[in-house]
Write a structure and sequence with these properties.
- It is a single chain.
- With about 150 residues, the protein is mainly alpha-helical.
- The chain contains six helices and two strands; from the N terminus they run H-H-H-H-E-E-H-H.
- The protein has one domain: Orthogonal Bundle (Arc Repressor Mutant, subunit A), CATH 1.10.10.
- A two-stranded antiparallel sheet has the order 1-2.
Amino acid sequence: MPFVRLLSMAVSAALEELHRELAEQGHPHLRPAHGYALNAILNGYSTASTIAPRLGMTKQGAAKLLQNLLDDGYVSFEEVEGGDGRRKPFMLTDLGREAINLSVAIQQRIEDDWSEVVGPRRMATTRKSLQSAVQAVSNGELPAVRPAW
């Protein structure tokens, strides 16, 4: 089986488990794209026009995604004094921060479970190898995480 296909299967399996648990713990409407948007906001990207390229989507698509997060209470508009009235920066709400923290905890639990299956040394080696491979094709950097549409 091609390695990239295995990586894709691993990501799909982990995301399905992550979102199933998020739903069970009070976040039933969150989808992977929402998580990528919440993380973009957490990392300082606060408008549809700055988030769109990070997610590989149009500004209109990002605006719709952000509107869903706004409607569900995960983000709110940041008050900007003397700023451009057309610019609507988003900020995480307490609910948004809770979802991110819960997601991080679930991801760690998934990794721990997988580590039990393959062994901690192999998991550490796999992590280091993947990081090195990604950095090698990304000018030594770890690129933004985004959906693989």
